[in-house]
Design brief:
The complex is a heterotrimer of chains A (245), B (320) and C (295). Chain A has 245 residues and is α/β, with parallel strands linked by helices. Chain A contains 9 helices and 10 strands. Chain A folds into 2 domains: 170 residues, P-loop containing nucleotide triphosphate hydrolases (Rossmann fold, 3-Layer(aba) Sandwich), CATH 3.40.50.300; 69 residues, no CATH class. A 6-stranded mixed beta sheet of chain A has the order 6-7-8-3-9-10, with helices on both faces. In chain A, a hairpin with a 2-residue loop joins strand 1 and strand 2. The radius of gyration of chain A is 18 Å and the shape is globular. Chain C is an all-alpha fold. Chain C has a single domain, classed as ABC transporter involved in vitamin B12 uptake, BtuC (Orthogonal Bundle). Helices cover 71% and strands 3% of the residues of chain C. Chain C has a two-stranded antiparallel sheet. In chain C, strand 1 and strand 2 form a beta hairpin. Classes of the chains: A alpha/beta (245), B mainly alpha (320), C mainly alpha (295). At the B-C interface, helix 5, helix 11 and helix 13 of B face helix 4, helix 9 and helix 11 of C.
């Protein structure tokens, strides 16, 4: 298997079926080191399923997932995580009975067994996402926007090479969105490659180096944001045939 | 409470406990305390698996019985000192726990709980039918005089039993405290809160569940050996029944699962309550104290599933 | 191990299969109630065995006090259990719907212990038996001897089970129950009163156990602990059939009944429950969601 220099994630022909429903059909694309790739597609396009396949929560029916030259298809989620892949979840999963700081420490412990070191790393990550002053609060009292930041901090704590963000702005109040976008940009600027599922078109256009558009489980377009958003098939998928030129 | 004050109070409490049998020399108060220590320790062991790691086992008596039977059989068959038997019992319990965990940890929620009940029932039924190990008639630990630490038997007074039981409880508390603050403790709690999120952060979930299981089973088995040497008679009905598994859970739940002191508080309340109803309600005590247990369990689950520790925390928060 | 039984002949085996099949229908009915409740709100009623015990006692007392044959008092018993189910929902379950799983398990466990000791306090530990019921004796079917009470109980259980399935699948209320089970939010958005559905689910689930208890009381010894073994069989049946899958419990019940009898025959009578539990563990290992369940 030859890896292109600069390719971090190589998704090849991933197909995933649930009974009669084909959630992912022959999906292929690449993510380079440090690249920010946006994934768009109407509801039901198979985006979250793709994330589950990439992070080991669902085995694909066929196809391969290769991380930096090493196949990770069908590996366990924790194994994939330890190879440098972090993720957030669309339906947020904070550790509710633990404090914000403890939540992030769980992530930090991947790289160290020492509670003091994990504590320090966790504070660092919380500072990065702007939640440092909430460190002692229980996770369950946070607002949605704050929970999203918490999940990001937690995923950051494992020092990932690739971060998968499932819905950055979903359910977040308008005022908080610019801050979240800045955060995502800053994380990417720090060298972390990213795969971002997002419904808000403006957000995706603003931050992505490249965009992959999915529809009914298939990739219908893959390229720079401007090209994708003007692509006829993409317009058709989102708005219906009448709008496609 | 500032740290210095906590240490002083803790030290005083420990001194009081150490001095207790010197002040109260009658057998009954000592027996009461020994029983409290034993249940607190068993509940603490269960708490590690269920409270911290979120795996609710309803068949924990299996490990208690393993400890009790292993040391007793070794004493009877090979004349080995019960202390060695205790260690062997713990090792066997750990091995058993891993064997049980392998299939059972693939299940979640209610399926898991029922599977643990099933395992408990299987083991109890097997032991009832295993005549070589005493079957339904049970096994006696032959009386050995004079009292000796090596033989783990003390007939003239309960004092030494008291200190051993206290020692076991302190061991359980120490292990829990250390685990709480370590990476393992954080991983346990993460697994309890959300297994998938835990896995996404690199935690090998099954491996840590098995670790919790091993810790829990080993400690529980130690209690089993102690019981065997204290009562000098064991049978499936006394060391393996579902009711014992439930009682262990109840002690922890009453006091507060997932907390360090919950099991101790739970035992401190439940054991005297149980002894009290047994004494004051006489012959029908058996059903009546169970009646109270049942009502108590329902009440706790509805009003404050977090147990007494949670009630105390709420109170503390309200008074600032 | 204790001494083995005399040789197991084909006839004995056949007798066992029929017996297991019949008992299986009763297990299925008991389990169906449990499955219905779980399907609605993801709560296992750990007091289900005690409900069965109460149904059996109700039947016994109806006979002891008013000379009502179990078959006559059956509707009464079912009605009483129906009310008990609804009372349990409103008095206990409603308060723990959002509580952590440990609290939910303990709530019904506490109820189980409470009811069992209540029965013991009221009626003692002695075994009771309905004497001289209308249905007694044996029939001979194709060379096999089948106890008439057992036959009536299993047929009755099967009929009740079929009726339950019809109710859930074909009536408006039944469909509302299904809708609530599948998606609570969507159901309530459609105007279904989910609170009422939950209560109804508990009522019907308990009524199933009421019918089973009345039928069993025709020939079974009745005592405060009688529910616990049935309960364990029921949990295993529900888990085998898949939690929430009511039709699946029929096949699962038959499997449990057969394994119990055949395990007892082929291994040792004392170990028949071990066989059942082992089968449970094997099945859930192979298919964690049960034979027919959705996870």
């Amino acid at each position: 298997m030859s890896a292109q220099p600069g390719t971090l994630l190589d998704v090849r022909g991933v197909t995933k079926r649930f009974g009669g429903l084909v959630a992912n059909k022959d999906i292929s694309f690449r993510v380079s080191h440090g690249e920010l790739v946006g994934i768009i597609g109407p509801n039901g396009a198979g985006k979250s399923t793709l994330f589950d396949v990439l992070t080991g929560f669902q085995p694909p029916d066929s196809g391969a997932v290769i991380l930096d030259g090493e196949p990770i298809t069908s590996r366990r989620p924790d194994e994939i995580s330890r190879r440098g892949v972090g993720r957030t979840f669309q339906k947020l999963k904070p550790f509710n009975q633990m404090t914000v700081l403890e939540n992030v420490m769980v992530g930090a412990f991947q790289k160290t067994g020492d509670p003091a070191e994990a504590h320090a790393r966790a504070l660092e990550c919380l500072h990065q996402v702007g939640l440092k002053d909430k460190a002692q609060a229980h996770a369950r009292v946070l607002s949605t926007g704050q929970r999203k930041r918490l999940e990001m901090a937690r995923a950051l704590a494992i020092r990932p090479r690739l971060l998968l963000l499932d819905e950055v702005t979903g359910g977040v109040d308008q005022g908080s969105i610019p801050g979240l976008i800045e955060l995502v940009r800053a994380m990417n600027a720090g060298g972390v490659a990213m795969l971002v599922i997002e419904h808000n078109m403006r957000v995706i256009m603003g931050i992505s180096h490249r965009v992959v558009a999915l529809h009914l489980g298939e990739v219908i377009c893959d390229g720079p944001p401007q090209a994708v958003v003007n692509d006829r098939r993409v317009i058709e998928a989102y708005l219906g045939g009448a709008y496609a030129r | 409470m500032p740290r210095a004050r906590r240490i002083v109070l803790g030290g005083l409490a420990l001194l009081a406990l150490l001095a207790f049998p010197l002040v109260f020399t009658l057998p009954f108060p000592r027996h009461l305390m020994i029983t409290i220590f034993l249940y607190a320790m068993l509940a603490q062991a269960w708490n590690l698996l269920a409270g911290y790691c979120g795996q609710i086992s309803l068949g924990h008596a299996v490990f208690f019985g393993t400890g009790a039977y292993t040391s007793t059989i070794l004493v009877n068959q090979l004349g080995v000192t019960p202390w060695a038997g205790m260690l062997v019992g713990a090792v066997l319990a750990i091995a058993l726990s891993q064997a049980i965990g392998y299939p059972v940890f693939r299940l979640r929620g209610h399926y898991f709980a029922i599977a643990t009940i099933a395992v408990g029932e299987i083991v109890q039924t097997l032991m009832i039918n295993w005549d070589w190990a005493g079957g339904a008639r049970g096994l006696f630990v032959p009386m050995k005089r004079p009292d000796s630490v090596v033989n783990f038997q003390f007939h003239d007074s309960k004092q030494t039993y008291y200190y051993i039981a206290l020692g076991l409880l302190l061991l359980a508390l120490w292990i829990t405290r250390r685990t709480e603050r370590s990476r393992t403790g954080y991983y346990f709690r993460a697994i309890r809160e959300d297994q998938d999120a835990a896995a996404s952060l690199g935690i090998p979930v099954t491996r840590y569940k098995q670790r919790a299981m091993a810790l829990s089973a080993g400690l529980t088995a130690l209690g089993g050996t102690f019981y065997a040497q204290y009562i000098l008679f064991i049978d499936p009905e006394s060391v393996l029944p579902l009711s014992l598994s439930i009682l262990i859970c109840l002690v922890a739940v009453l006091g507060g699962v997932g907390t360090l002191w919950g099991p101790v508080i739970g035992a401190a309340i439940l054991v005297p309550l149980s002894e009290g109803t047994r004494i004051y309600l006489g012959g029908t005590g058996k059903a009546l104290d169970l009646l109270i247990y049942g009502a108590l369990i329902m009440l706790i689950s509805v009003i404050q599933p977090g147990g007494i520790m949670a009630l105390a925390q709420r109170g503390r928060r309200r008074t600032g | 191990m204790r001494g083995r039984l005399p040789a197991v002949t084909v006839e004995v085996l056949l007798q066992g299969v029929v017996s297991g099949l019949m008992m299986g229908f009763v297990y299925a009915l008991i389990a169906a109630g449990l499955s219905l409740i779980f399907g609605l709100m993801e709560i296992v009623n750990f007091a289900h065995g005690e409900f069965l015990m109460l149904a059996m006692f109700a039947t016994f007392w109806a006979w002891a006090l008013w000379r009502l044959d179990p078959l006559v008092s059956l509707p009464l018993t079912a009605g009483v259990l129906f009310l008990l189910g609804i009372a349990t929902y409103h008095g206990l379950i409603r308060w723990i719907l959002a509580a952590p799983m440990l609290a939910q398990i303990f709530a019904t466990f506490g109820l189980a212990i409470f009811l069992r000791s209540l029965a013991q306090a009221l009626w003692g530990v002695d075994f009771h038996l309905v004497k001289d019921p209308w249905v007694q004796g044996r029939v001979s079917l194709g060379g096999l001897f089948i106890g008439l009470p057992q036959l009536v109980a299993s047929v009755g259980a099967l009929v009740a089970f079929v009726f339950l399935n019809w109710f859930i699948g074909r009536t408006e209320t039944g469909l509302a129950l299904q809708a609530t089970a599948q998606d609570r939010q969507a159901a309530s958005l459609m105007g279904i009163d989910t609170d009422r559905m939950f209560a109804l689910g508990w009522g019907i689930g308990s009524a199933c156990v009421g019918v089973a208890g009345a039928l069993l009381a025709i020939f079974f010894y009745i005592f405060p602990d009688v529910g616990s073994t049935f309960a364990l069989m029921a949990y295993v049946t529900v888990a085998l059939g898949g939690f929430g899958n009511v039709p699946g419990t029929l096949a699962a019940g038959v499997v449990v009944g057969l394994v119990e009898v055949l395990g007892g025959l082929l291994i040792a009578p004392a170990l028949k429950y071990v066989a059942v539990f082992l089968i449970y563990l094997v099945v859930v290992l192979w298919r964690p969601q049960g034979l027919f369940g959705r996870f």
